[in-house]
Write a structure and sequence with these properties.
about 425 residues; 12-stranded mixed sheet
Length: about 425
């Protein structure tokens, strides 16, 4: 049985029937339930928070480019992992023209050239008229943790795996691939992963397509990376599970370094104009399978918390020290995804750096279908609920066009409920 079989409702049904002692009864009823499940879509989509702008208004403004950075979560990934999401997003945004070849950059750390920082794949998209342009940056950081997880390779070998039941063996291998990453992130590799993120952001500061190397191993210097055009470009982050923690930590690290540049040599000479370019930006972060509350457990607090009024209001005493003008955090979570969480009301002020000037919108959305397993109870596949966000048309439409505005997609108007929460 392949891992993909675990995502099937039939697998869940058969498992439920087996556990209830009714396996002999199952085939015809299972087929009937699956037929009903495949024809009805009763999945919930509830949005609570501020209106979501989405990406499309930035494209319409046409003052600069729209730049989207994708940061994956746990597990080993290969460059190209976000291809399906990118295809769906480009169709939703009507960006059907693509550059002839993507750029594939092996990231290099200037402070330690021997360390692997992963890969950054950059794809350039345009509309047919050439008036709208989006650059999509796909960061693959799992190369950093891959070698460390090799310590568990013995457990995947026949010497140990043959003793397990087939399904349990597949689950154990999945656990060996994904479970160690949050633990590794708490150790020495965290610095390397955050350097990888910082390098990706630096490459986002390049203005011309020919400034990006086609391939090979290269590093980006922030003193050259953030040029004047960066003022006009729109910045969007899309992250999944642990990738959301990496994104928040990476941005917060940049905040601290910009305020105390002696912490990082590559940022010491960023001039006032480049700093102000960041401070005038409205940044959107879309967090798929959000895990910030769980991944905050046992961690230190940010340097600056509970001071949003001082940093984010123009009349505030520390307004000139903010990172961004405004940061919209949109947290997606499926209630049947056992690894995702909404962001509670108090979390923003207590656990997010005030200098981000962030506001939070929670999206409670069923990614996996919920169905009745023969009176035993309602079931949804937790694996599909965790990994299926980037494939879901509603998720893609919310990222592209938002909600609570005059350009909301008809799919969202039909399938999602929005409750505006005011501060």
């Amino acid at each position: 049985m392949r891992l993909s079989a675990l995502k099937s409702p039939l697998f869940i049904i058969c498992l439920a029937l087996h556990l209830s002692g009714c396996a002999s009864f199952g085939k015809g009823v299972a087929e009937a339930v699956l037929e009903k499940t495949n024809t009805e879509d009763t999945r919930v989509c509830q949005v609570r928070g501020k209106p979501i702008q989405g990406i499309s208004p930035d494209l319409e403004a046409a003052k600069g480019k729209t730049k989207v950075l994708m940061v994956h979560g746990v597990g080993n990934h290969l460059p190209g992992y976000a291809t399906e999401f990118l295809d769906k997003l480009s169709k939703e945004l009507k960006l059907t023209a693509k550059a002839s070849q993507y750029k594939d950059i092996q990231l290099l750390s200037f402070s330690d050239a021997d360390k692997k920082l992963g890969n950054l794949r950059v794809t350039r998209l345009q509309n047919t008229e050439g008036t709208q342009e989006l650059w999509f940056y796909e960061l693959t950081w799992s190369e950093i943790t891959k070698d460390l997880k090799a310590m568990l390779a013995f457990d995947n070998s026949g010497e140990y795996s043959y003793r397990r039941a087939e399904v349990n063996d597949m689950l154990k291998k999945f656990s060996n691939d994904t479970g160690p990453d949050p633990i590794i992130y708490l150790g020495e590799s965290r610095d390397l992963i955050l350097r990888s993120f910082a390098q990706a952001v630096c490459w986002m500061g390049k203005d011309r397509w020919d400034e990006l190397p086609a391939e090979g191993r290269h590093g980006c210097d922030f003193t050259d990376g953030l040029n004047e055009s960066f003022k006009r470009d729109s910045i969007v982050f899309v992250s999944h599970s642990l990738g959301s923690r990496i994104t928040i930590d990476g941005i917060t690290r940049m905040v601290s370094v910009l305020e105390q540049p002696e912490k990082q040599s590559t940022l010491r000479t960023i001039n006032k104009a480049k700093r102000e370019a960041l401070q005038n930006k409205h940044v959107q972060i879309f967090m798929l399978s959000n895990q910030l509350p769980m991944l905050q457990l046992g961690r230190e607090l940010p340097e600056v918390t509970g001071q949003k009024v001082d940093y984010c209001l123009a009349s505030g005493s520390k307004y000139s020290s903010r990172m961004f003008n405004e940061t919209d955090i949109v947290a997606f979570s499926d209630p049947n995804d056992i690894l995702s969480y909404a962001i509670p009301h108090h979390f923003n002020d207590k656990y997010l750096d005030s200098r981000l000037c962030s506001q939070v919108t929670n999206i409670n959305i069923n990614i996996a279908k919920v169905f009745d397993a023969f009176g035993i109870g309602k079931i949804a596949n937790p694996l599909e609920a965790h990994v299926g966000y980037a494939k879901d048309d509603r998720v893609v439409a919310l990222i592209a066009d938002g909600i609570g505005n005059d350009h909301t997609d008809s799919l969202i108007k039909d399938k999602c409920e929005w409750t505006e929460i005011t501060e």
